Amino acid sequence: VAVRGEHVYAARLAKSAIAARGAVELHLSERGAISNLKLRPCAYPPLDLDEKNSSSSRANDADKGKLPPGACLLRVRAVGLNFRDVLNVMGLYPGDPGAPGGDCCGTVVSVGSGVDNVRVGDDVFGLAPGCLQSYVATDARLVHPLPGSSSPSSSSSSSSRASVLLHEQAAALPVITATVQVALVDLARVKAGDRVLVHAASGGVGMAAIQLCHTVGATVFGTVGSDAKKAFVRSLGVKYITTSRDAAAFETDMNTFLSQHNHNTNRDQDSQQGAANNKVDVVLNSLPGAMLEASLRLLGHGGRFMELGKRGIYSPAQMRRCRPDVTYEAIAVDHMVESDPAWFQTMLKRITRLLETGFITPPPTHAFDMTSASGKHDALAAFRFMQRAQHMGKVVIRLPSIADNNYRLSGRQQTDNNEARQSLTRGGGTYVVTGGLGGLGLVVARWLVV
């Protein structure tokens, strides 16, 4: 306080708790260790990325930083990690998987020529390879407006359940839901009465598989790696749960479970048919070695073996020699997307319809903040957390904007209230920028978005 004659003056300015920052990226200098990931600043995208400025040459577009035809530019809001990303960073993924990051949710900030499924301002979810950065360009066929959005591409019949989808929830969905739809619906054709063995049942894919099996009336047999995960999966309505760490104990438990299930469903245990039915109909596998071999022994004649693993898996020729009666599919959604992006657009529309009708719901998420100054909650912590297989549900990395941080630091955030969380994650409020098309206005608007 300063006294000047008859006047008393008090300080009116204080240092803001909001950290001023620009666009950032999680850069991988070389594969081999999670510690090789470094958060660093990156350039803003040009402000004039639009179809009017696109040139006739895709190469020239790339050189000038302009969007090629059919692409869209996203301000990334959240990234869903997959184990593929951990293998990528560790240098253990077969082939060249490109930059880490795939599942994402974001806001469209620019579109290239020929794009009609999304428009500027849409909140979208889908795939954007290398999306661990504030801005990323992707094929517009790989994203779709969130349920409940006002985009013409989004159904107008979306339910209230879908309309409150948070950014981190949406980022958790694309790969896990597409994988389960391909594996259990399109290929295995799971139906009521089927017995389905789901390995790693507490993960994102496992939870999506459980949800689908319960919807169609199939019985789930799950494996997990800890007592805490066992309790969690049991809370999802799964009765038969065993270990994913000990192949001998797993096989013993499964034989017991199948006998119990047959007895409970009044199957004739003394008949030859009853003995044959003491097996599972479908295996959704992600485990190698002895667990894979035990799973094959538990699979009934003419069963369906859906392989999601990337290392130590059977080739089709090996499976034919070992079990010629089995329908075997090694599923790699990433390769399917690369070969046919239009197929994935159709899959995203299917996922959106399932969300809108309530047939699927997002898994629980464990969220980290890519811009966090704390080593316990940043992006590297997210990778290490997933590497140790500690998660139940989906690991997500958030990329909050300055506006999000302003809303959180104002004290108005109520994370236990879903409506307030939606407001925070989907923008945190409305900001009016006067003179928004002038030089300063554009800079302020971009600062709010980033």
In short:
Helices cover 35% and strands 20% of the residues. The protein is built from 17 helices and 17 strands. The strands form four sheets. Strands 5, 6, 7, 8, 9, 16 and 17 form a seven-stranded mixed sheet that branches.
Task: Give the arrangement of secondary structure elements.
Blueprint lengths: L1 E3 L2 E3 L14 E5 L8 E5 L16 H7 L6 E10 L2 H8 L12 E9 L11 E5 L7 E5 L3 E3 L14 H4 L3 H5 L2 H14 L7 E4 L5 H13 L2 E6 L2 H9 L4 E4 L3 H18 L7 H5 L3 E6 L3 H10 E9 L8 H7 L4 E4 L2 H7 L1 H16 L8 E5 L9 H9 L6 E5 L3 H8 L8 H8 L13 H11 L1
Parallel strand pairs: 10-11, 10-13, 11-12, 13-14, 14-15, 16-17
Antiparallel strand pairs: 1-2, 3-4, 5-6, 5-8, 5-17, 6-7, 7-9
Helix pairs in contact: 5-6, 8-10, 12-13
List its salient traits.
single chain; 450 residues; Quinone Oxidoreductase, Chain A, domain 1; Rossmann fold; seven-stranded mixed β-sheet; six-stranded parallel β-sheet; 17 strands; 35% helix; 20% strand; elongated; Enoyl reductase (ER) domain-containing protein; phosphopantetheine
